[in-house]
Amino acid sequence: MPQMYSGGGAMSLIEARGLSKSFAGDSVLQGVNIALERGEIVTIVGPNGSGKSTLLRMLAGVLKPDGGEIRHAKGLKIGYVPQKLQLEASLPMTVRRFLNVPRRVSDQAAERALARVGVSGLKTRSLDVLSGGQMQRVLLARALIVEPDVLMLDEPTQGLDQPGQAEFYRLIEELRAEMGCAVLMVSHELHVVMSASDRVICLNGHICCEGTPEIVRNAPEYRRLFGSGTQGALALYRHEHDHVHDENCGHGAAHAQEEAH
Ligand code: ADP
Ligand code: MG
């Protein structure tokens, strides 16, 4: 039985040790240790199916690990934006009303959150007419309403073009400076993310490597997964995926999927 309890004193915002998770007998994550400190921006990168969303969901407390331990600092508030949203975009609902889901919020709190992410003008707009970038900002605004200590974002810039991505990450950095929150993100946009993060964690069923963007960029484990070119990240990943035989990064979910094909 995993433990989930609040620690006291001077600890990290979130500390997790030895996390593991399987779905239907397939191991997705093994032996993951992670700690998140106040005010830092940490990005999790990794191939499709490498367990990034699963890890984020466990750390956010919405999914139980099979093994290991997660501690949240006392009274920790998390603003979590999942990768997949069930209702939203399809609904003809105004932005203002959407901010009341799941909990009703005051007009003042709603205004403040929208202003923070630069979309005050969208209040009466219907969700189904928003651009991708506007929708991401609205989702972010909703996550900010709780005044989170930790902002968790799962591929928040999916579907945005590169200038849109860069702008979004700049906004995240501004929010971090303004609110002092820690940010834990999952991303695919390796090169944009690399410069916007204090720390990068490369995941593939387990933590392959981690550290400052420079350290990770130059780590052989990372290069094996993503290559070293500026454009070729995903192409090289596919290449690696076709020849899964490295010992350090080859096991885990991506490997299991490959074998299932
Ligand atoms: P990533 O976010 O890195 O792409 P995920 O964490 O979403 O990867 O998924 C990792 C693996 O776990 C995938 O093979 C996925 O199909 C599987 N998985 C994730 N969530 C579930 C679930 N609720 N039920 C069954 N399998 C799941
Ligand atoms: Mg995911």
Q: Structural class, from secondary structure content?
A: alpha/beta
Which CATH class of the largest domain applies here?
A: Alpha Beta
List all distinct small molecules, including ions and cofactors, that are bound in this structure. Answer: adenosine-5'-diphosphate, magnesium ion
Shape: globular
Radius of gyration: 19 Å
Can you give a write-up of this model?
This protein is α/β, with parallel strands linked by helices and 261 residues long. It has two domains: 153 residues, 3-Layer(aba) Sandwich (Rossmann fold), CATH 3.40.50.300; 62 residues, no CATH class. Helices cover 35% and strands 24% of the residues. The chain has ten helices and ten strands. A six-stranded mixed sheet has the order 6-7-8-4-9-10, sandwiched between helices. Helix 5 links the parallel strand 7 and strand 8. The radius of gyration is 19 Å and the shape is globular. It starts with a strand and ends with a helix. The C terminus is likely disordered. The structure holds adenosine-5'-diphosphate and magnesium ion. The site of magnesium ion has 5 residues, from helix 1. The site of magnesium ion (MG) has 5 residues, from helix 1.
